[in-house]
């Protein structure tokens, strides 16, 4: 019988057998998959594991600090944080094409990870939080093989950097990973965290990614999350976030005419992210989001709600 407890025991044995006294490196994102994978490896071989968290500067408000605090508290392994914001922003300067943004971010990510790994010595193993659906998807099995958006992980490392993969979650579905996470003692806000794309806020800023745009979007996005969470709807809604558009419209605030950006709210229900429906958020929640965003986020004077399902829309705007 599959239970999280049995699974943890067996994984620990299997990882020990695979790794022996070798060294393991792992890229962490703060998401449930990479965190659970790292925790299993840490249980199995403790000191032999080094984790790398690349802060590309495209995370949500205060997220890098929160992720590091969570990891320090729950993950008994060495965690290195790499501050690479400047580098990613420079590489993204002036770039507007969504796939180009993804390509640049994926490429920089691999380079930063590679440089960091080299500095830390030599590693024989790379641990990854690959799930069963990822395995099926990359094998091209099951339905639509068409790749709509390129999703990045630590593929594409240089030829001379060959790792043997440690993938303890390879046979699990997302709900099983969550059960394992709970059994390992991770808090619910980590285990039930909404999916967040690897390229982060870069694909939620339409147009060029600048420090100012990032700051604006972080503030608006934090309001959307706070309101969904304080209404107790976070477990019912698959993803909920803000998108910053380069569209400017006229408004009036106090006695003044304003000319500011449009922020879109995106909230969807879904089973697996493959198809999705726009979430019927209560008007009161939408109203609080709108009022707060216009009042609290400088440069934004209009808020719209995205009522497009997937398909034909995608969940992200880019
Ligand atoms: P779309 O926008 O294609 O998104 O409907 C489906 C799910 O995938 C996430 N997503 C990404 N995740 N890298 C990722 O790691 C990406 O480039 C990427 N693009 C979309 C999206 O947030 C949703 O959960």
TrEMBL record:
Residues 2-193 form the GMPS ATP-PPase domain. It catalyses: XMP + L-glutamine + ATP + H2O = GMP + L-glutamate + AMP + diphosphate + 2 H(+). Keywords: ATP-binding, Glutamine amidotransferase, GMP biosynthesis, Ligase, Nucleotide-binding, Purine biosynthesis. The keyword Disulfide bond does not apply. The keyword rRNA processing does not apply. One of its GO terms (molecular function) is ATP binding. Pathway: Purine metabolism; GMP biosynthesis; GMP from XMP (L-Gln route): step 1/1. Its EC number is 6.3.5.2. One of its GO terms (cellular component) is cytosol. ATP binds at residues 29-35. Coiled coil: none annotated. Catalyzes the synthesis of GMP from XMP. Homodimer. This is GMP synthase [glutamine-hydrolyzing]. It comes from Ardenticatena maritima. The gene is guaA. The chain holds residues 196 to 513 of 513 of the full protein.
């Amino acid at each position: 019988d599959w239970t999280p407890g049995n699974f943890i025991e067996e994984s620990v044995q299997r990882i020990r057998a695979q790794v022996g006294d070798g060294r393991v490196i792992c890229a962490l994102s703060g998401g449930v998959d990479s965190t659970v994978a790292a925790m299993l490896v840490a249980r199995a071989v403790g000191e032999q594991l080094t984790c790398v968290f690349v802060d590309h500067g495209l995370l949500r408000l205060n997220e890098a600090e929160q992720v590091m605090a969570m990891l320090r508290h729950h993950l008994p392994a060495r965690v290195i944080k790499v501050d690479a914001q400047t580098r990613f922003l420079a590489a993204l300067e002036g770039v507007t094409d969504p796939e180009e943004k993804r390509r640049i971010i994926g490429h920089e990510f691999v380079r930063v990870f590679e440089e960091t790994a080299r500095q830390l010595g030599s590693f024989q193993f790379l641990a990854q939080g690959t799930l069963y659906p990822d395995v099926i998807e990359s094998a091209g099995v099951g339905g639509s093989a068409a790749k709509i958006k390129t999703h990045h992980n630590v593929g594409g490392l240089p030829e001379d950097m060959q790792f043997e993969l440690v993938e303890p979650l390879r046979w699990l579905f997302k709900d099983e990973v969550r059960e394992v996470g709970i059994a390992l003692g991770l808090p619910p806000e980590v285990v039930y965290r909404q999916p967040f794309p690897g390229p982060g806020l870069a694909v939620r800023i339409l147009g060029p990614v600048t420090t100012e745009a990032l700051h604006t979007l972080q503030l608006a996005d934090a309001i959307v999350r706070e309101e969904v969470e304080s209404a107790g709807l976070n477990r019912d809604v698959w993803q909920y976030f803000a998108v910053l558009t380069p569209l400017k419209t006229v408004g009036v605030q106090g006695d003044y005419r304003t000319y500011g950006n449009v922020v879109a709210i995106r909230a969807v229900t879904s089973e697996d992210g493959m198809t999705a429906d726009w979430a019927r958020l209560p008007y009161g929640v939408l109203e609080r989001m709108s009022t707060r965003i216009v009042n609290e986020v400088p440069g934004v004077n209009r808020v719209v709600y995205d009522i497009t399902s997937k398909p034909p829309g995608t969940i992200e705007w880019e």
